[in-house]
Write a structure and sequence with these properties.
The protein has helices at about 20-30, 45-55, 70-85, 105-135, 155-175, 195-200, 200-210, 225-230; strands at about 10-15, 35-40, 60-65, 90, 135-140, 180-185, 240-245. It is α/β, with parallel strands linked by helices and about 250 residues long. Helix 1 links the parallel strand 1 (about 10-15) and strand 2 (about 35-40).
Length: about 250
């Protein structure tokens, strides 16, 4: 039995996009709470692995491109074979393309939707079959402020994150009665590769900071507590929530 409601001892967490940024921050927080961790990413997750192992937990890195559905069955099989179970899925992998709506291309639309929404759904479907069979599981989707707002110059990203919020609620309706919690975290403006262009633009950077009551960009570590909560027994009666971690952005 867990020593406290936030303990993840004996759990295995699969984190997509776990090699850098928000995914790495979440993976490390889950490991520090007691979970063994699998990172799925297009590039090696060696740094994440070292941080997870420094927390005393087992680690598996899987290199896979979630721009297609081909790797999904193998991801689940490798996780179960190497670590002997799977209890937590964090759908963090995502990409962004920026252009005015009138200039946006079909390739940029499809690339973002394939990773952020299509592969996320079908990986969750594959993991969900395992969770249903074992009678419990935790799904955490990484949504966005653009699950609530429109944004500018990111039409496919906005569509994908709005869709992810909807899928979070749909899966809750279908799976909550089967012992599976499906929730989402909606990060605010975070200091990651995805926001490098915004932070490099002095005027845009300043306008964003002026809108954030906390007065700063978020960091990957800021998501850790929310992820541990939603992955743990402390959230067993939390279903279909989309939890903003935004420094107060939505309160403005």
């Amino acid at each position: 039995m867990a020593s406290h409601p936030f303990s993840l001892e004996g759990r295995v967490a699969l984190v997509t996009g776990g090699n850098v940024g928000l995914g790495q921050g979440i993976a490390v927080a889950l490991a520090q709470a007691g979970a063994d961790v699998v990172s799925v990413a297009r590039r090696p997750s060696e740094e994440t692995g070292a941080l997870v192992q420094a927390a005393g937990r087992r680690f598996l890195g899987i290199e896979a491109d979630l721009g297609s559905l081909d790797p999904i069955a193998g991801i689940v099989a490798k996780t179960l074979e190497a670590l002997g179970g799977l209890h937590i899925l964090v759908n963090n992998a995502g990409i962004i393309r920026r252009a005015d709506a009138v200039d946006f291309t079909e390739d940029d639309w499809d690339a973002v939707m394939d990773v952020n929404l299509k592969s996320t759904f079908f990986l969750t479907q594959a993991v969900g079959r395992h969770f249903i069979a074992q009678g419990h599981g935790k799904v955490i989707n990484v949504a966005s402020m653009l699950s609530f707002q429109g944004g500018i110059r990111v039409p496919s990203y906005t569509a994908s994150k709005s869709g992810l919020a909807g899928i979070t609620k749909l899966l809750t309706n279908e799976w909550a009665g089967k012992g599976i919690n499906v929730n989402a975290i909606a990060p605010g403006y975070m200091d990651t590769d995805n926001t490098a262009q915004l932070r490099a633009d002095p005027a845009r950077n300043q306008s964003i900071l002026e809108r954030i009551p906390a007065g700063r960009w978020g960091t990957p570590g800021d998501l850790g507590g929310a992820a541990v909560f939603l992955a743990s027994g402390a959230s067993d009666y939390v279903n279909g929530a989309i939890l903003p971690v935004d420094g107060g952005w939505l309160a403005r």
